[in-house]
Amino acid sequence: MSGFLEELLGEKLVTGGGEEVDVHSLGARGISLLGLYFGCSLSAPCAQLSASLAAFYGRLRGDAAAGPGAGAGPGPGAGAAAEPEPRSRLEIVFVSSDQDQRQWQDFVRDMPWLALPYKEKHRKLKLWNKYRISNIPSLIFLDAATGKVVCRNGLLVIRDDPEGLEFPWGPKPFREVIAGPLLRNNGQSLESSSLEGSHVGVYFSAHWCPPCRSLTRVLVESYRKIKEAGQEFEIIFVSADRSEESFKQYFSEMPWLAVPYTDEARRSRLNRLYGIQGIPTLIVLDPQGEVITRQGRVEVLNDEECREFPWHPKPVLELSDSNAVQLNEGPCLVLFVDSEDDGESEAAKQLIQPIAEKIIAKYKAKEEEAPLLFFVAGEDDMTDSLRDYTNLPEAAPLLTILDMSARAKYVMDVEEITPAVVEAFVNDFLAEKLKPEPI
Hey, is 174 helix, strand or coil? Predict the structure, then answer.
């Protein structure tokens, strides 16, 4: 276990009081569940979370007081200690985005858990990218032995299970989480067993959210076309509305099913299951309840005729207005081409697709998300804006890796882009052999 943790976190962590703790000592303490808390001292929601998380952490670990340093780090003779209670096998590590060391010190001083040292800025950024953290505060739980994500939305764990009775909060099958009555907007009630044999879209949305309402209008048409084509497909609306009245008003526009608004526990469990960090989000499942894509929103907007339903992920995407938001989810390889040349974009996709497929398969075998997304960008306003923002040359073809969260770019300056060139570029990036340029 310690090998994985040292690869993930480095050799040393620090307590709120500034004392160093060896990462390998977590194994001696019997830590089985690791929480990564992503936050910043300047964020009021992070300050609120820290307070509630400290109480939660203290209750689970059985600490006499959840004050600074409580339980953070092994005591003398930890290796010979009795087998810990299951819930005391939890440790949390704070991963900060602070840019000022004094503010960071003031913030971590009151934390009873551990933190990545302030100087570990590169490692922090790698963690943000690895787990696709898009907003703060975020709290995810990992299996400390394998690194597999157990729960992507720890904030809901704190709210829904304050005593830790469901520890270690591992994911449950969709059929189990969705079990219960579902509604149509005419008041008809159906059992969730009616979903058997169907592809399912789990739609997290709310009436107060303008992008949600825009997507709903498109999704209504997509739903109709898919059903008319004879496909077994159903959508489940999981509301984030602020009142039952708003829910009813919004749901009246939808021809599909919904989790009852009054069933807050089930709505929350679905949010936890899929680690929802923002809306609108459309998760598409196969008939066995396994995720096909988390990018249903992008797929619906890019494929309004639904010819590619159920939208299995493509290794290489053509950059567009609707999927450009994915550039912010982590490092992206972008091959810029001259789209005025017939077939140039398709040839570029064929060039990088084998490399993309190899990377995706390698990380899927480890049950991890690929560390890179792959795009081809043609000549249009979106591409022009991206080139301007990242200060890239006008050359085409141009091979780049863009890391928006790190405000870094990597540019491959060669006369001819071949599969071997692309693969070497990707491998050097993953091995951290490339020198970044600022964006």
Answer: helix
> Residue 429 falls within a domain, yes or no?
yes
Q: Establish whether the linkage from the previous residue to 310 is cis, with ω within 30° of 0.
A: yes
Q: Let me know whether 148 and 239 are in one domain.
A: no
pLDDT digits (tens, 9 = 90+) for 215-271: 999 999 999 999 999 999 999 999 999 999 999 999 999 999 999 999 999 999 999
* pTM, full prediction: 0.82
Which residue is associated with the tokens 């996709």?
A: 349
Instruction: Tell whether the model's pLDDT for residue 2 goes beyond 60.
Output: no
Q: How far is 113 from 110, CA to CA, in rounded Å? A: 9
| H or E segment and range at residue 411 | strand 408-412
Q: Is 147 left (phi over 0), alpha (psi -120 to 50) or beta?
A: left
Question: 155: phi > 0 → left, psi -120 to 50 → alpha, else beta; which?
Answer: alpha
- Whether 391 and 350 have beta carbons less than 8 Å apart is answered as no
Among 248, 278, 302, the domain-final residue is: 302
Domain assignment present for residue 416? The answer is yes
Q: To the nearest whole number, what is the mean pLDDT of the chain?
A: 90
Beta carbons within 10 angstroms of residue 294's beta carbon: 18
Number of structural domains the chain divides into: 3
- Give the amino acid at 59: R
User: How many whole angstroms separate alpha carbon 76 and alpha carbon 82?
Assistant: 13
13, β-bridge pairs: 21
Pick the last residue of a domain from 138, 160, 182. Answer: 160
Any domain includes 233: yes
Task: Give the range of the structural domain holding residue 130, as residue numbers without chain letter.
Answer: 1-63+87-160
Place of tokens 């998300």: 369
Q: How far apart are CA 294 and CA 276, in angstroms?
A: 10
Amino acid at position 364, single letter: K
Res. 63 pLDDT band, cuts 50 70 90? low
398 and 275 co-located in one domain: no
Is-contact 54 139, C-beta < 8 A? no
User: Which is nearest to 30 in space by CA: 82, 92, 94, 95?
Assistant: 82
The token pair that represents 40 in the structure block: 């910043």
Distance CA 95, CA 39 (A): 6
pLDDT digits (tens, 9 = 90+) for 69-124: 444 444 433 444 445 466 678 999 999 999 999 999 999 998 999 999 999 999 99
Distance CA 108, CA 406 (A): 23
Question: Which tokens go with 128?
Answer: 């943000």
Distance CA 149, CA 291 (A): 15
